[in-house]
Amino acid sequence: HQSSSKMAVRAQFENNNDIGVFAKLTSAYCLVPIGASENFYSVFEGELSDRIPVVHTSIAGCRIVGRLTAGNRHGLLVPSTTTDQELQHLRNSLPDSVKIQRVEERLSALGNVIACNDYVAIVHPDLDRETEEILIDTLKVEVFRHTICDNALVGSYCVFSNQGGLVHPRTSIQEQDELSSLLQVPLVAGTMNRGSDVIGAGLVVNDWAAFCGMDTTSTELSVIESVFKLHDAQPMAVAGAMRDTMIESLTS
């Protein structure tokens, strides 16, 4: 009995735990790849569909939607290889308040090189100036060029919402503090999927829900729920879910 109020939820995409590769989640919409199993969709739709649209799409004919796009509640950036048909489908499916923009960017896996919430983005140091302008215009964010643990793929090694963030486990305290003051949210260094440091691949999160790979341990799960303040979203419901689980484990 999975209580729908538990705020960090485990999911798998065709036996793959890297759900952040395949899905993109913001507080205004969720993108999932076409041709996935009903099971995968139902996990997302069960948690989200009463609040935001869950849109089935491909990007440039690929299913790695999470790695190819960058977005927040204000907008969505997609690579120049996105087809007109895909673009039209996204425009029809997303709320009118979300601006969609195709970007001519050499670093075309936008999800790997841009990490953002609704206010701030950190980006790969070599990201195109023009892309930076589009980020500022479309996503309405302040942009900082940065690395995480000396790695330029910021979107792979950190995930943050408007509440908090998770960064590569070997990020120094000094760098965590520096990033935290840029982003204005508390950060924790940690792992996903039983010890993976590629945070962005294993986790998607918005202000009230998170989804992570099936291999994520209960310790990793509790770190996620605490740093992203997911308990605060529905405190009574979460307490209820925990009580249900305790009773189940006592009676089973």
Q: What features would you describe in this structure?
A:
Helices cover 36% and strands 21% of the residues. It is α/β, with parallel strands linked by helices and 252 residues long. The strands form 5 sheets. It has a 3-stranded mixed β-sheet with strand order 1-15-14, with helices on both faces. A 3-stranded mixed β-sheet has the order 2-3-4. A 3-stranded mixed β-sheet has the order 5-6-7, sandwiched between helices. The chain is globular, with a radius of gyration of 17 Å. Residues 1-6 and 234-247 have low confidence and may be disordered.
Span of the ends, CA to CA: 12 Å
How many distinct helices? 11
Sequence of strands across the biggest β-sheet = 1-15-14
The secondary-structure class comes to alpha/beta
- What proportion of the residues is helical, as a percent range? 25-40%
Shape: globular
| Number of DSSP strand runs | 15
Average pLDDT value? 85
Rg measurement, Å: 17 Å
Query: How much strand?
Result: 15-25%
Which regions have little confidence, pLDDT < 50, spanning 5+ residues? Answer: 1-6, 234-247
Main beta sheet: strand number and arrangement? Answer: 3 strands, mixed
Q: How do the helices and strands follow one another from N- to C-terminus?
A: EHEEHEHEEHEHEEHEHEEHEHEEHH
